[in-house]
């Protein structure tokens, strides 16, 4: 199969979004947009860094690559619409494996009615997938990290540390409880788009998705908003069988594990009830884990049994 057969094999026969004027098949795609704000992001997924042949099957690789990007759109309060895929393919990957990667991408995309409108295909050493997403938010309704203010409630969706626990199980085979649950959390992460969309009527929300761990994400909100975030350690939600892992690992994973793709956010106290309603309406667990103050600027604190300490920007970092 050459490059052109490959492109033909991944091309959608029709597009779901009516705004596509030109999809795959020219030098670039064309979409027509008039009323909303366009929101776009790109995240890259690399063999040996984000996955190995021990941790993921081809379907998971595709699903996870698109999910991470969809998660960034959710964190902006945007509705996903399009994606473009740039893929570097080593010669060791066969046609069926590539087909499975695209099946995984199409699966995640179809949940959100997204169209694949372009990309690029080259050969190279490590399988690398770079996904660009495009979504739309109502005018001036994108949710920024800079939108936290003193007095806000800090909340998080779902449970934290599960993806890292799944990776641990994959890399350390043994007997564990709820193995499939943890593996799925690592390989087929959640998407919090509908919850984020339901927050649409709120005047002010800050949001950040948990790709590197909440220690990192909370610090990003604190820095962008020039406020301090105070998090209660025992309020951080974890799954039922998370307690099977050693205490030290639980602590590390829930704060620094990353790749849970949950949403960390802040809202004014008077809107908290509406966040709960949005969560209930979309089957999204949501937990209050702390509050925002302007005691100091750009800091995060973690509190346990009345003792407070700074929570530094520590987690997964690519360039050390
Ligand atoms: N190489 C780059 N060139 C231009 N902009 C970049 C580059 N890398 C990151 N950015 C920009 O920096 C900002 C933060 O990106 P970052 O990747 O940290 O966010 P994220 O996608 O939420 O996190 P993660 O990559 O862990 O999922 C974004 O605006 C992003 O577009
Ligand atoms: C085999 C293997 N080893 C380690 C990890 C952990 N890991 C890789 S990248 C990343 C942060 C998110 O990436 P990004 O910042 O690029 O979004 C994390 C936590 C993994 N998933 N697979
Ligand atoms: Mg990124
Ligand atoms: Mg993000
Ligand atoms: Mg991201």
From TrEMBL:
Keywords: ATP-binding, Kinase, Magnesium, Metal-binding, Nucleotide-binding, Thiamine biosynthesis, Transferase. Reaction mechanism of ThiL seems to utilize a direct, inline transfer of the gamma-phosphate of ATP to TMP rather than a phosphorylated enzyme intermediate. Mg(2+) 3 binds at residues 27, 72, 209. It catalyses: thiamine phosphate + ATP = thiamine diphosphate + ADP. The keyword Magnesium applies. Mg(2+) 4 binds at residues 27, 72. Mg(2+) 5 binds at residue 212. Residues 25-136 form the PurM-like N-terminal domain. Residues 150-302 form the PurM-like C-terminal domain. GO terms for molecular function: thiamine-phosphate kinase activity. It comes from Virgibacillus kekensis. It comes from the Bacteria. Belongs to the thiamine-monophosphate kinase family. Catalyzes the ATP-dependent phosphorylation of thiamine-monophosphate (TMP) to form thiamine-pyrophosphate (TPP), the active form of vitamin B1. CDD domains: ThiL. ATP binds at residues 102, 119-120, 145, 211. Mg(2+) 1 binds at residues 43, 120. This is Thiamine-monophosphate kinase. Its EC number is 2.7.4.16. It holds the Pfam family AIRS_C.
